[in-house]
């Protein structure tokens, strides 16, 4: 992007003054109910894709036929498949419900920024996706706490309008809440988007279902939404990391053990040791329960995790932290240990995808010094990493049935500000501690 254009866009940035929006919201919308669609038992359903390591994509789908092969045929021309890969399957049961055959197949190596055409299981409809670019710019769509309401559909429609490369979802996907066929309807609802761009997700409280008294409680989530945890050295699908186009993204688990003796904490230290800020100058973190939240809803729920992990992530120079859980939108200044800090992270709460529980409309007053903008409306975010030093964040309210940009800010990376180099001794000390 030319310097003049960059300066012009930066001049349009919203002023950094604390704001609580007074937008008058329309009434809530009902949960969507889908008509019964009896597909052939072998036809792929609920198709979605995710990143699976460098130049690889994981394709996931479900069939009702137990004998359906877990193969994906793919190529760069419609109807012409030059490559094929075979994957693995899983399934699960809960009371009178039995899932279909859940297929996970990793394809690649793939070219960057390229459209591929593919079909699953050797038949059925053809899908297509575009791989992310290998370098800046890259755009992430962000929306958490989706559910399956009319507002969810509006959010998805608006995300579909933006030119994004990867979708980030900080927890609470389907709101199935033990009703297992709601996982299936959610998969069908998001398929048009999730089959065309990678969806990278982490778990929320509504994914924890404790099916058949299983200890971890994430049986259906783990079976359906497999993420690249093994590729990132994690031993749990509840936390992992991935890299794409100059961005190292860490997906943490708010509902996995996170104390200093936990597997997650030790994995996080090991993952941060591998981060090369010359290769990935941007460091982004996602989790479900926000650490900086001035809404009355879910106050203090992230305090213990923050007390354990914030010093580590601050020392690592995390640029942006994205969370859900609170059904509203909020953006902070750069903050650390409860106070403004030029080397701290910007925290964004975006649990406003459209869930059935409605909006969290009560905020604490006075507005904290670290809180810049907050509004209880449904919507989605767009995070564009323009280059190694500048990113543009915008939040788009969808309560008008059209995406209205209601908040925006240019963000300068901590690498370019010197914070990362300044804190490197502190980081090494923490990472190398037993």
From TrEMBL:
Catalytic activity: a phosphate monoester + H2O = an alcohol + phosphate
Enzyme class of the recorded protein, top EC level: hydrolase
Chain ranges of the Purple acid phosphatase C-terminal domain: 345-401
Residue ranges occupied by any Purple acid phosphatase N-terminal domain in the UniProt entry: 44-131
Signal peptide: 1-21
Record CDD domains: MPP_PAPs
A Pfam match: Pur_ac_phosph_N
Keyword Glycoprotein: yes
Enzyme Commission designation: 3.1.3.2
Residues covered by the Calcineurin-like phosphoesterase domain: 139-329
Gene Ontology MF annotations: acid phosphatase activity; metal ion binding
InterPro entries registered for this protein in UniProt: Calcineurin-like_PHP, Metallo-depent_PP-like, MPP_PAP, PAPs-like, PAPs_C, PAPs_N, Purple_acid_Pase-like_N
Keywords associated with the record: Glycoprotein, Hydrolase, Iron, Metal-binding, Signal, Zinc
Known cofactor(s): Zn(2+); Fe cation
Membership in a protein family: Belongs to the metallophosphoesterase superfamily. Purple acid phosphatase family.
Protein name: Purple acid phosphatase
UniProt organism field: Ilex paraguariensis (yerba mate)
């Amino acid at each position: 992007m030319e310097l003049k254009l960059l300066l012009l866009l930066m001049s349009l940035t919203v002023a950094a003054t604390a704001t609580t929006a007074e937008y008058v919201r329309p009434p809530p919308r009902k949960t969507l109910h889908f008509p019964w669609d009896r597909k052939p038992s072998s036809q792929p359903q609920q198709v979605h894709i995710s990143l699976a390591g460098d130049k690889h994509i994981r394709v996931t789908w479900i069939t009702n036929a137990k004998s359906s092969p877990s193969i994906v045929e793919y190529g760069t021309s419609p109807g012409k498949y030059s490559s094929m890969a075979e994957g693995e399957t899983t399934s699960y049961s809960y009371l009178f419900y039995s899932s279909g055959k859940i297929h996970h197949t990793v394809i690649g190596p793939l070219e960057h920024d390229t459209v591929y055409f593919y079909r699953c299981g050797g038949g059925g409809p053809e899908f297509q996706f575009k791989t992310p670019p290998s370098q800046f710019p890259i755009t992430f769509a962000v929306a958490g706490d989706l559910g399956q309401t009319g507002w969810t559909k509006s959010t998805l429609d608006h995300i579909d309008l933006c030119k994004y490369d990867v979708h980030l979802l900080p927890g609470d996907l389907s709101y199935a809440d033990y009703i297992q066929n709601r996982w299936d309807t959610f998969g069908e609802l998001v398929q048009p988007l999730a089959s065309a761009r990678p969806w990278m997700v982490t778990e929320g409280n509504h994914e924890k279902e404790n099916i058949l008294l299983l200890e971890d409680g994430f049986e259906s989530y783990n079976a359906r939404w497999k993420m690249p945890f093994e590729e990132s050295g994690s031993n749990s699908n509840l936390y992992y990391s991935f890299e794409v186009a100059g961005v190292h993204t860490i997906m943490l688990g708010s509902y996995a053990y996170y104390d200093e003796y936990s597997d997650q904490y030790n994995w996080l230290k090991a993952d941060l040791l591998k981060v090369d800020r010359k290769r990935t100058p941007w460091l982004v973190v996602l989790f479900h329960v926000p650490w900086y939240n001035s809404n009355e809803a879910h106050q203090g729920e992230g305090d213990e995790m923050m007390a354990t992990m914030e010093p580590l992530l601050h020392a690592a120079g995390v640029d942006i932290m994205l969370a859900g859980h609170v059904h509203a939108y909020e953006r902070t200044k750069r903050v650390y240990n409860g106070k403004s800090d030029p080397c701290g992270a910007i925290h964004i709460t975006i649990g406003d995808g459209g869930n059935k529980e409605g909006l969290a409309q009560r905020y604490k007053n006075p507005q904290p010094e670290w809180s810049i903008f907050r509004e209880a409306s449904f919507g989605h975010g767009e995070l564009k990493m323009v280059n190694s030093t500048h990113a543009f964040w915008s939040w788009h309210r969808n309560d008008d049935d059209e995406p209205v940009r209601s908040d925006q800010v240019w963000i300068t990376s901590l690498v370019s500000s010197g914070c990362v180099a300044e804190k490197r001794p502190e980081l090494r000390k923490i990472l190398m501690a037993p």
